[in-house]
Each structure stands twice: as C-alpha cells, then as structure tokens.
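Batch manifest line 275
LIGAND: manganese (II) ion
JOB: complex structure
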Amino acid sequence: MKVDLHCHSSVSDGVLAPAAVAAYARKGGVDVWALTDHDEVGGIKAARAAAQELGMRFVAGVEISVTWANETVHVVGLQIDEDNPTLIAGLAATRNGRQARALEISAQLESAGIPNAYEGARRYVGNPDLISRTHFARYLVEIGVCGSTPEVFRKYLTEGKPGYVPHRWATLTEAVGWIRRAGGIPVIAHPGRYPFSATAEGALFDEFRQLGGNTIEVVTGSHTPDQYAEYAEVARRYGFLASRGTDFHAPGESRLEFAELPPLPSGLTPVWHDW
Ligand code: AMP
Ligand code: MN
Ligand code: MN
Ligand code: MN
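JOB STATUS: finished
ARTIFACT:
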C-alpha cells in the first residue's frame, strides 16, 4: 500500500487544482492520499471527490504555519474534520497578514533592483487569501533572476537576504489545539528543515508531546536520505509514530515525484497503522 500524506494544490502554493493533484498522485501509484494545503482547507471537498472517483483512500489534511522559538515550524494535521469551526477560524487568522507581508516582500525586492514582484507573484496565486513566498520564487525564476526555486530561497526571501519579511504565525499550542479539536492527528512536518540546535529541537519535541502530539514526518521530499535515518532514530527514541509524504508542489519542482517516494525505514510504527 502506497501512502502519501503531504502535498499541495493551487489552493495554497501548489500549481495543480486539487482534482488534478489527485489524478497525478494516482498515476504515481498512490493508494492512500492526503491533501495538506498551507493554512487552508478550501480544496478538501474537491480533492476527496476526485480521490474517491480514482479509487484512492482520502485523508483530509492541512499544514499549519507556526512560529516557535522565533522560527517557522510547520504542523500537519491528518484526518481532520474540515468543517470544524474552531479549525476554520484558526486557519483564517493564520492566513491574515499574508497580503501586507507580500507587499513588504515586493518593496524589498524593488530596492534590490527587481520591480513589480507583487504583480508578478500574483499571477501565480490560485487563492487570493494565500500569497506565499513560493509564488514570488516562481516569478523570479520566470524573469530569469534565478534558475530554480531552491536557488531563489538561497539568494532571496530567507533570513538575511532581500525579500525576507519576518512574520508571526500561529503558536504551537494553537495549531495542535485546532487540529485536535477537529478530530485530527498533529504531525511535526519535515523536522530536518528547521535551524534548531539539538537542545532546541528536543524542546520542540517535548513541548509537542506535552500538547498531545505523537507523530513526526520521517520520509518526506523535504528531507535528504540521511535525514530519513536521523528522524527514524528520533521517532524510535521518543516513541513517535512516523509519517511519510512527498511535499509535492508541482511536477518537476519538488525533490520527489509521487512514484519516487521511498518506504519508511524499518522498526517504525506508521501513523496509518490503525486506519
Ligand atoms: P510562506 O508560507 O509564504 O513562508 O512560504 C513557505 C513555502 O516556501 C514552503 O511551503 C515551501 O513551499 C517554500 N520554500 C521554503 N523554503 C524553501 C526552499 N529552501 N526551497 C524551496 N522551497 C522553499
Ligand atoms: Mn509550500
Ligand atoms: Mn512545510
Ligand atoms: Mn508542505
């Protein structure tokens, strides 16, 4: 059974509509599939209908942006009720501020010699409530400032680089609370991507566990193969369940296509063990 529990549609910063992501995942051999758009559940109903049509088991998901210890951490929620009012209100509050942030990003890029970035990024936006750095990155690739989106994030939009605008997202307590209120399973997304010391990372996992979290992503398109092993060890040590997903955004843009996602390392309990 091929399980993929992390990917994006044009409802956040992916390029395909939810039904098209479902079809692309199915073509890549996926049997159990979650859509996990950033801070938004607007694509869930279309994704579920398409998945059922294609004979895939569907898992309603979301990826919430969190600020923890002054860094951005992503918390995925799986098996959520997308109609839960607490979750919906929390996500709306989290999305709030993206518009003002985008204008500030654009002003900084203008000062760095790149005009009209806001208008350029907007052409890639599928959901007016959700303009993200990814949309700016695609525009900078389009106009030839960089050759790829990873190169954009090395040279722009990140701490210390032009176009970086710090932003305060949800708290870890809020994000885990909203997911649990909606009947879902909170998951620390791609833990290998955060710039934490071992001590800070341990504190994140301890706090997450105290809030009721018990799952981390181990195999994700946002990890290197070395990090699969590293976070498999973390999952064993903490007794966490393990999750797995491509973090797909666009054909050819992510590290892994659906068909290329490796299985979880042995000795782990998958988050889907009792589904
Ligand atoms: P935002 O929520 O607007 O801060 O945008 C975050 C998104 O930017 C992430 O979900 C990724 O899709 C993308 N992103 C962040 N860092 C990188 C990176 N180093 N390489 C490629 N994409 C990235
Ligand atoms: Mn993204
Ligand atoms: Mn993420
Ligand atoms: Mn993601």
